[in-house]
Design a protein that fits this description.
This protein is mainly β. The protein has a single domain, classed as Beta-galactosidase, Chain A, domain 5 (Distorted Sandwich), CATH 2.70.98.10. Helices cover 1% and strands 43% of the residues.
Length: 322
C-alpha cells in the first residue's frame, strides 16, 4: 500500500485528548481537546506545510548564511531558506523516523543524523509523545553516537490555535465561523518574557537582545489582544513558577484557549504570527517554539549544548487546553 505523504500515521488517546503523529519529521499533525483543535492540523496525505508540528534539531531557527565554526573547523550548511540565505530549522524535519514504541497513549520515534557536509557529526534523535489528563507531553533527546563532540540545539514547531476547531480539509483556507475567528488578531496572548532578540527586517538575522520595555509592541507580559502586531522573534528572560516552568497562553474571546509549558531546559521561545502573502493562510495560528538556544546559536554560542561522545541531552514541553 502507498504510504501517506507525511509518513506512517500514529494516533494516541488519553482522557479528553487525542493526537495524530506523522513519522516524517516526527511531526505533531493534530492535537484535539474535547474535540477542539489546539494546533493547526494538516492532512495525512499532505506535504507538511510551513514546518507545522515538526521537530527542530540539531538546531532550531536559523544559522545565518549557513556558515559556522566549531572546534576550530569551518562548516557550510545547505541553505534551506534560500530567500533569506540561511540554514533553517535543522536536519531532521524531513527524515522518516522509525517507530520504536507504540502504546494507546504514547509513541517513541527515532532517527539518526549521519555525518554530512556542514554537520559532520553522528547524532541519534529520539522523540517521545505522551498523553495524559494534563495534555500532550513531548520529549526530544539527542545522543552523540560519534567520536567527536557535536553542537546541538532543539525545539518544536507547533502552530497553536485558540479559535474554533478546523476541519483538516480546510486547514489551509479556513473561514470564520459563528463560534469565532481563525486569525491570531483576535486572540489574547500571554507571553511572560522580559527580553526580545531584535532582527533585521529583510533576513530576520539576529541583531541584539533588548528589554521589551523598549519595544512595547512585543510586551505581552500582561495578557492582551494581539491585534495586527507582527511577531517573528525569539524571547527570553522568562518568568517561571515555583517549579521552574514558563507558559505561553492563547485565548479566544470566549475564554477557551491553549497553553504551552516548558521547564528551564528551554530558556528561549520563538513566537511567530504566521504571516504569509496569501490572505487565506496568513495569521491562522501562532507558532510557539520553546528552544534550548537562540537563533544562530552555532555562531553566537549562547546556550549552545555541546554533546560529548556518548552523551545525551533532553528537552521537553507540554501543550494543554484551557
Amino acid at each position: 500500500m502507498t504510504e501517506p505523504r507525511s509518513g506512517r500515521q500514529l494516533r494516541i488517546v488519553a482522557g479528553d485528548y487525542e493526537a495524530d503523529i506523522a513519522s516524517i519529521g516526527a511531526s505533531l499533525r493534530a492535537l484535539r481537546f474535547r474535540g477542539r483543535d489546539l494546533v493547526v492540523p494538516f492532512e495525512a496525505d499532505e506535504v507538511r506545510p510551513g514546518y507545522r508540528g515538526a521537530v527542530l534539531a540539531p538546531w532550531p531557527n536559523r544559522v545565518v548564511d549557513g556558515r559556522y565554526s566549531f572546534a576550530g573547523e569551518e562548516h557550510q550548511l545547505p541553505l534551506t531558506e534560500p530567500a533569506r540565505g540561511h540554514a533553517l530549522h535543522g536536519l531532521v524535519c524531513w527524515l522518516d523516523f522509525a517507530v520504536r514504541e507504540v502504546a494507546d497513549d504514547a509513541v517513541v520515534l527515532a532517527a539518526v543524523i549521519v555525518p554530512q557536509a556542514g554537520y559532520p557529526f553522528h547524532v541519534e534523535v529520539q522523540v517521545e509523545y505522551r498523553l495524559d489528563a494534563r495534555g500532550l507531553h513531548q520529549r526530544v533527546t539527542g545522543r552523540n553516537l560519534g567520536a567527536d563532540a557535536a553542537p546541538w540545539g532543539t525545539g518544536p514547531h507547533p502552530y497553536l490555535t485558540a479559535g474554533p476547531s478546523l476541519r483538516l480539509a480546510d486547514a489551509r483556507s479556513v473561514q470564520a465561523t459563528s463560534s469565532g475567528t481563525q486569525r491570531v488578531d483576535d486572540w489574547m496572548l500571554e507571553l511572560p518574557a522580559s527580553a526580545v532578540l531584535t532582527v533585521t527586517a529583510d533576513r530576520l538575522s539576529p541583531i541584539v537582545l533588548e528589554s521589551v520595555d523598549a519595544h512595547p509592541e512585543w510586551d505581552f507580559r500582561t495578557p492582551r489582544v494581539i491585534g495586527d502586531t507582527f511577531i517573528d522573534h525569539a524571547f527570553t528572560g522568562l518568568t517561571r513558577d515555583v517549579a521552574g516552568a514558563a507558559a505561553v497562553r492563547l485565548r479566544s474571546a470566549s475564554g477557551e484557549g491553549v497553553e504551552m509549558v516548558w521547564d528551564a531546559g528551554c530558556p528561549w521561545v520563538q513566537v511567530h504570527t504566521a504571516d504569509t502573502p496569501d490572505a487565506d493562510t496568513s495569521r491562522r495560528g501562532l507558532a510557539v517554539e520553546p528552544m534550548t538556544c537562540p537563533p544562530d546559536v552555532f555562531n553566537s554560542g549562547t546556550d549552545l549544548v555541546v554533546l560529548q561522545p556518548g552523551a545525551e541531552h533532553a528537552a521537553s514541553w507540554s501543550i494543554r487546553g484551557i
